[in-house]
Amino acid sequence: MMSDSSDDTSIRARLAVLEALAPREREATRERIDLLMGAAKEALSIQTGELARRLGDLNGEAARLRAIQAEYIPRETYYAKHDDMAKAIVALQVAQSNIIGRIAVISAIVGFAVALIVRWILP
Hints:
mainly alpha; 2 domains
């Protein structure tokens, strides 16, 4: 690492070289420096615009993701509703079996009554 006095010496040496240049060379050097500074400012401006655009996209993405998440239900709620639905399906299947059994019994009774009527009352 250089000390402060060696930094000063280095800077002074560079200034001496710059001052020793002919006026035309100094002007050309200043033009190059101005050109480079302009290019750096333009690059910084473009980069700032791009960063602002990306930030806007990311902010929009966060809002879009929140909107999508608002449409979904939590996993716990899904499983609770799913279990309730499974229990309701089982209850409906039991009720269906009971109704089918009752229809079978009623059909047997009606068939027996028709057979009695045909055999004993109609002849």
